[in-house]
Design goal:
mainly alpha
């Protein structure tokens, strides 16, 4: 069994293979970008969840101490310490400490 291909058919086959390769590379880049975006948004949601959980626990302890009065020092500590912790959490959440996108454009190593 012999296969007889004309130069036009060979060129068409190479063109189809090249087009498939380009589409595959474009899809891989798009998937990588989508994964990076999802990771960044998951970090924000995770941080927001931790902040909400801590604030709920602070409110619970404060409510417990306020509804059962008797010790003014305990009341001041219970109302003051969460403010310090909340200030620390908010400062950390709103401070940029690193840049995740450190890619260089133009290819090649520098």
């Amino acid at each position: 069994m012999t296969v007889n291909l004309t130069p036009t058919q060979i060129l068409a086959g190479v063109g189809v293979l090249l087009a498939l390769f380009v589409v595959w590379r474009f899809g891989a880049r798009k998937a990588r970008r989508a994964a990076e975006t999802a990771r960044a948004s998951a970090r924000v949601v995770s941080l927001a969840g931790r902040v909400l959980l801590m604030s709920a626990s602070f409110v619970g302890v404060q409510w417990l101490v306020i509804t059962h009065p008797g010790n003014p020092t305990l009341l001041l500590v219970v109302l003051g310490v969460p403010d310090l912790i909340a200030a620390h959490v908010l400062t950390r959440a709103l401070t940029v400490t690193s840049l995740d996108a450190t890619r260089h454009r133009g290819g090649g190593r520098r």
